[in-house]
Amino acid sequence: MSKTFTREEVSKHKEKGDLWIIIDSTVYDLSRFLTIHPGGLAALLDDEVAGKDATDTFFALHRFEVLQNPQYVRLKLGHIQGEEPQMIKPPPGSLSEIPFAEPTWLSKGCHSPYYNESHHRLQTAIRKFTEEVVFPDAQAREEDGKRVSQHIFEARVRLNLPAMALGPGPHLKGLTLMDGAVKPEEFDCFHELVIIQENSRLHARGYSDGMAMGTYIALPAIMKYAAPEIRDKICREVFAGQKFLSLAVTEAYAGSDVAGIRTRATKTEGGWIVNGRNEQEGGIIVLLIERGEGIETRLIRTSYSTAAGTAFITFDDVFVPDTHVLGHPTDGLRTILSNFNHERLVYPSSALRNKISNFHRWALACGSIGTQRAIVEECFK
Ligand code: HEM
C-alpha cells in the first residue's frame, strides 16, 4: 500500500528544498529533481504548480509515458486519500487509439484481403513481446550505446524471429514461429511486413539495427549463392543466435558506392587473399569471410546510437577459400545488388516471385511507413 496524503498536507511543501506536487492523484516529491528537470526550475516553483494539483499543466507539456520512466517512478511519494488515477496505461499488446497510429487493416470496421487471422495473431503476439520484453532494453541501450542485451537475442531465437526476418521460404520449414501464431507454410510477405512495422514502435533506430540488420542484409546473399552445406550451416548458426553477420560494402573512399570499393581480393592456390588497403582493379567479388586471423573490427561512432554496432573492419592478408565465393567471381556486383532488392530465395511460384521482386527494398518501405505512423502517433500525443 502506498502512503496517502490530503491535498492540504501536500500544499505545505511548496519551497525549493521541499517541493511536492500532485499529478493524476499521485503525489510526487520533486525537491531533488527540481534542479535537473528538463523543463527548468521556474516551471515547478510556479504558484499554480508548487504544492498544488498540476495534472492539467503537466499533461499539456508531457506525454503520459514520461511518468512510466523508472527514473521518474522513483519520485512518487504516495497518493491522495480517496482518489484514483484517471490515466490508465493500456495493457501490453493493445492497439493504439491515437488517430492514424495503426494501419487500416487493424482499424475497426476495415477489412483487407491481404490479411487473415494469422496476421492478426502474429501482430498481437509481436506487439506484446515488443512492449514487454524488448522496449525496456531498447530504450536503455539506445541511451548507453551498448550492444543489444543477450537475453533479447535469446528470446528472439526462441520465437524464431531471426528466421522470420528473412521472409517467407523453405528456411522456415519445421520451425515453430512466434509460439505457433503463424505456420511456416502460411508465412507470407505480409507477415514479414507486420514484424518490420511492429519494430518501428521501439522508437530506437540504432538498437533495431543492432538487433538484426546485419543478418537481414547479409544472409540473403548466402542463402541464394552459397553451396548448400555452407548455406545450411550458416543459417542454422544464425537462426540459433550463435553467429552474427555483417555486410561489408561501405568504405571510407567509396561511401555507399559499392562499385567504388578498394578492398582487394587476389587469387591464390585454392582461394583468395583479401586486403583492405589496395586500389581496386578488375571486377567485384562477393566473399563470405569468417572471423579469424587478419580481421579486426572496431566500433564506429555514427550519428545514431552505437547500439547499432556499426563497425570498421580491417582485412590483412585474410585467406578465403574458393568455397566461400558467393556468385560468379567477377560478377559480384550482380550478387550484391540482387541482395539489395530483397530478391531472395525461391518463392513458391514464379508469378509470386515477379510480384515480390517489384517490391524493391520491401523492408525499407515497410519500415519507413511504420516509422511515419509512429511519428504521427507521437505528435498527436
Ligand atoms: C513528476 C513531475 C515531472 C517530471 C518527471 C517531468 C519531466 C520532464 C521531462 C522528462 C521533460 C523533457 C520533455 C519530455 O520528455 O516530455 C520535461 C519538460 C518540461 N516540463 Fe516537466 N516534468 C514534471 C513536471 C512538470 C510540471 C509540473 C511542469 C509545470 C509547468 C513542467 C514543465 C515542463 C516544461 C515547460 C518542459 C519543457 C517542455 C518542452 O520543451 O516542450 N514539468 N519535463
Describe this structure in a few short sentences:
The protein is α+β, with helices and mostly antiparallel strands.
What does this structure look like?
By secondary structure, this protein is an alpha+beta fold. The protein folds into three domains: 3-80, Roll (Flavocytochrome B2, Chain A, domain 1), CATH 3.10.120; 92-203 and 348-381, no CATH class; 243-346, Butyryl-CoA Dehydrogenase, subunit A, domain 2 (Beta Barrel), CATH 2.40.110. The protein has helices at 7-11, 41-45, 55-61, 70-73, 117-144, 150-158, 161-164, 189-199, 205-225, 228-239, 332-340, 350-357, 362-380, and strands at 3-5, 14-15, 18-23, 26-29, 76-80, 264-268, 271-275, 286-287, 295-299, 311-315, 318-321, 325-326. Strand 3 and strand 4 (26-29) form a beta hairpin. The longest helix has 28 residues, at 117-144.
